[in-house]
Structure prediction request, 407 residues.
Amino acid sequence: SSCIFLYIRYVRFFLFFIFSLFFLSSKAQVYFPQNNTSLWDTISPSSLNWCQDKIDSLYNFLEVNNTKSFILLKNGKIVLEQYFNGHTDTSYWYWASAGKTLTSFLVGMAQEEGFLDILDTTSNYLGSGWTNCTSFQEEKITIWNQLTMTSGLNDYVADPHCTIDTCLNYLSDPGTRWAYHNAPYTLLRSVLENATGQGINLYGYQKLFNQIGMDGLFVYSGYYNLFTSTSRSMARFGLLIQNQGYWNGNQIMTDANYFNQMTNSSQTLNESYGYFWWLNGKSSFMLPGTQFLFNGSLMPNAPNDLIAALGKNGQYINIVPSDNLVWIRMGENPDSSLVPVSFNLDIWDYINDLTCNQSDVMQYNDNMSRKLIKVFDVFGREVKDTENTIMFYIYDNGTVEKKIIVD
Prediction:
């Protein structure tokens, strides 16, 4: 029996070793921009077979819908980057509710360091009487409830941003109702600061921002806790999440269990919501401002493994781990919704249409020089397809065109 036990341990170690090698090799294929520099490697859209006229259509759509910046990364490198209406790569802009995901990440770091446990009652860090509930009701609310929008506090009050105790009234037991309520989120800042003994900006720079080259600042706007930064900082954070908390040789978040909880269904009431992250590919979803449960996927025209940070007025981070793709949008309000999910869908329609079709390639190539390549087998015979010659043309932009010439 001892031999069997040792054998099982050996097999487990071997599988873990193989997985670790695969994980590290897959990360090595992703590029990470260096800190403290504006240099960022790029990829030509033509190398992805994306047509310029379709890119222009995307940019036109973004511009007429009050966009300030748009960045798309592939394998960590910039494919598309465009600024509108006087905005630049050094301009600051607010993240709105997309910034909730930063707070979620920092709470995970604080738990990793032992400053808090997300199953702790919130009263441990805010003191008793932080709500207008009874002591028994208040003690049931945990940090986890704040992270998952399941505090049970009434979001139908006159100002759902209000964090004063008289605004925080009991509606249901924690964990029994999902509601997009900003006040419990905002109070996580105080939870984090009281737990760590540091301001959120100091803690953020020590544990996250300096680690990946981000700039930015948390500020209060009335009751609301806002984060503001450059567009490239938003893209850096998206790249970090794409790589499961890993950045250029450094595992920023080592608690894989928390990271997985953060970016997967956190509760059964709204499957499409993690710890402030929106999730695609689930069987149903709920939206801010409503208690209606919609059937189907949140973003039916996007990849199923999409995870997204969605903020008021169209502040977006979209991450597709399976495709090593990240895109961000910052700007003014494109519509009147609380969180403009439909505008995010519209952007995906344009992204899905970026690939050149055959007629686009032919028209584009007519104006470019090309080189004829014939293919031969190992015996020196010209390769044919059903006795017809296959000819390949390679254009100066790297596009390859296949033609079959009937003999």
The radius of gyration is 25 Å. The first strand starts at residue 67 and ends at 74.
